[in-house]
Design goal:
Elements: H1 4-10, E1 34-39, H2 54-62, E2 80-82, H3 87-108, H4 118-143, E3 147-152, H5 159-166, E4 172-177, H6 197-201, E5 207-215, H7 220-228, E6 233-237, H8 238-246, H9 251-260, E7 265-271, H10 293-305, E8 309-316, H11 325-344
Parallel strand pairs: 1-2, 1-3, 3-8, 4-5, 4-7, 5-6, 7-8
Helix pairs in contact: 2-11, 3-4, 4-5, 9-10, 10-11
Length: 351
């Protein structure tokens, strides 16, 4: 097997990439600095499904991403790869999704489902097993000294990864880019719903703070969780950010306010529906409003240049639909996340 240095010396970043490889780059888990775990999971989604196909769609679209980054000219030399998607998990997801869809239909038609319902027990047990699988995968590569990240799947997918990071880091914050608060105790009988990911993340003692950006869709229960959080949850609502910008405040000023609340170590959780829906029209629960691609990159760059360290990240809720636009955008968001995370680890240099 070639070393990372041998690959860098022989690969032409200006030519066509390698199909089937993330960003067309010829790296493997052994010679990569950053390893991405695919999470083909959307069992308990409450609206449109299909995000289980997100990791593969992003992988396929990433082949067309040009590798040069103006601020980080050597970005492609980092060494980054995505692990193979588990066919077994993908097939299990399909079976469980059918079971969950029937349960959701029953709930939405007014049926009262007892908490000990066999279907619910099966689904919730499988979701916890999936979380432990992701935790184990993440632990393996974290123990090897790799930077680790996750590609979903719906937004419930990263819980196991956050737990794995808590085994390594005593205290960190979660920066959540999202249209939704995701602070429900459970939803439709599913405690591991995508609508509950941040509620569950806050159960992890190492998560000291949650900073939410772009929120514009939530329920009263979630608003109450925010109010009771005693400063542990800081929310930047999309409406408030836009109102301040319409009255003269710059995006740079908004980013500065966000960064004030970030501790030295943070995990970034990106639900693509946090962006304007024109960038993700097929995502499971799109909401009008949201941040723009260049605004996200500006915030990410400003965070890293402020000296914060990104200990890990996820990109979730990318759904390919009938085309490749969502995956195309997702691949470019992913490339930025990989590069700036590496800069925060001093693996890449800004010029």
């Amino acid at each position: 097997m070639q070393s990372k240095e041998q690959i860098v010396a022989s690969f032409d970043p200006n030519g066509p990439g390698i199909r089937g490889q993330l960003f067309g780059l010829p790296f493997s888990p052994e010679n990569s600095e950053l390893v991405l775990i695919p999470a083909p999971w959307d069992v308990t989604v409450s609206y449109h499904d299909g995000t289980s196909r997100g990791p593969q769609a992003i992988l396929d679209a990433s082949y067309q991403v040009d590798l040069f980054v103006k601020d980080i000219p050597d970005a492609w030399k980092l060494g980054v790869c995505m692990l193979s998607t588990s066919g077994e998990i993908f097939e299990e997801n399909k079976l469980l999704r059918a079971l969950a869809a029937q349960h959701i239909s029953n709930v939405e038609n007014g049926q009262r489902i007892p908490s000990d319902d066999p279907a619910l027990r099966t689904i919730n047990g499988a979701c916890e097993k999936f979380n432990e699988h992701i935790r184990s995968e993440a632990q393996k590569y974290l123990n090897e000294g790799k930077i680790v990240a996750l590609v979903g799947g719906d937004h419930s997918s990263p819980l196991g990864f956050i737990r794995a990071l808590a085994d390594v880091y005593d205290r960190f914050a979660v920066l959540q880019i999202d249209a939704h608060a995701d602070l429900r105790n459970s939803y439709e009988g599913f405690p591991y719903s995508h609508a509950s990911i941040m509620y569950n993340a806050l159960k992890v003692p190492a998560v000291g703070k949650l900073i939410q950006v772009g929120i514009r869709d939530l329920c009263e229960e979630e608003a109450n969780v925010m109010q009771r959080a005693m400063g542990r949850i800081i929310t930047f609502y999309d409406h408030d950010m836009r109102s301040s910008m319409l009255s003269g405040k710059s995006w740079d000023n908004v980013c500065t306010e966000i960064i004030k609340h970030l501790p030295p170590l943070l995990y970034i959780s990106v639900d693509i529906d946090g962006f304007d829906p024109k960038l993700c029209p097929n995502t499971g629960t799109p909401v009008p409003g949201g941040i723009e691609f260049h605004e996200f990159v500006y915030l990410l760059k400003k965070i890293v240049l402020s000296g914060r360290k990104v200990i890990g990240f996820d990109l979730s809720e990318v759904c390919p639909g009938n085309g490749d636009w969502d995956a195309n955008v997702g691949a470019r968001i992913l490339y930025q996340l990989c590069n700036w995370t590496a800069v925060s680890h001093n693996k890449l240099v800004v010029r």
